[in-house]
């Protein structure tokens, strides 16, 4: 998987979290919350792009108002079937982000066999008792698990990210209403 330095960018981190959470849940409420969060990410990307969009056929000329003409969706049509959340970095970047998410899921599978179900229950209970401390509860539970789990053959940065996302997914499957808040907290945690 290599260096996860690109996760300092919030959009990249959000996509990795989204792709990590995306597969294999049959829970309707979980899928509904994840879909809603995906729509928020799309809207956020469109706002952050600030309307500076390019069509595939354009040659990058500036219009008189200083903006590029057209719409970026023309550039992304070839990757839309591949990804629910297009990103202006191109298809290769999306494929790389999906690969990182898949590798993190493989690390997470090792965690799930060991202790994640219990940790997710602890985190759900702690969040229920004091929702305003969501970020602190997540950090504390990740740190506690890192002390308990032994995956010394893997890079520590990857282990921390995989463990964080595994906990987030475990809690969100148990309590889908927490998905949006935990998603945002996980993105901030991963970026720092």
Give a written overview of the molecule.
It contains eight helices and no strands. With 192 residues, the chain is mainly α. The protein has a single domain (5-46, 88-191), classed as Apoptosis Regulator Bcl-x (Orthogonal Bundle), CATH 1.10.437. Helix 6 packs across helix 8 (179-191). Residues 51-62 and 65-83 have low confidence and may be disordered.
Structural class: mainly alpha
Q: Approximately how much beta-strand content do the residues carry?
A: under 5%
3D shape? globular
- The helicity comes to 55-70%
Instruction: Please tally the β strands and state the result.
Output: 0
CATH topological fold name: Apoptosis Regulator Bcl-x
Q: Kindly state the mean pLDDT as a whole number?
A: 74
Gross CATH architecture = Orthogonal Bundle
Supply the number of helical segments: 8
The end-to-end span amounts to 19 Å
Radius of gyration: 18 Å
Order of helices and strands: HHHHHHHH
Low-confidence stretches: 51-62, 65-83
Number of domains: 1
CATH class: Mainly Alpha
**Major sheet size, sense and barrel closure:** none
């Amino acid at each position: 998987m290599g260096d996860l330095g690109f996760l300092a960018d919030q959009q990249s981190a959000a996509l990795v979290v989204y792709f990590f959470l995306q597969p294999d849940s049959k829970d309707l409420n979980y899928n509904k919350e994840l879909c809603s969060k995906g729509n928020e990410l799309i809207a956020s990307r469109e706002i952050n792009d600030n309307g500076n969009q390019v069509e595939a056929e354009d040659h990058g000329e500036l219009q008189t108002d200083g903006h590029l003409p057209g719409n970026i969706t023309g550039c992304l049509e070839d990757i839309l079937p591949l990804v629910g959340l297009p990103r202006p970095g191109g298809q290769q970047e999306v494929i790389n982000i999906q690969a990182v998410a898949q590798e993190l899921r493989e690390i997470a599978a090792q965690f799930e066999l060991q202790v994640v179900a219990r940790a997710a229950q602890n985190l759900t209970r702690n969040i229920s008792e004091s929702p305003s401390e969501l970020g602190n509860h997540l950090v504390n539970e990740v740190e506690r698990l890192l002390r308990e789990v032994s995956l010394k053959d893997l890079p520590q940065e990857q282990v921390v990210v995989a463990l964080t996302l595994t906990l987030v997914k475990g809690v969100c499957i148990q309590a889908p209403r927490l998905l949006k808040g935990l998603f945002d907290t996980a993105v901030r945690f991963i970026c720092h």
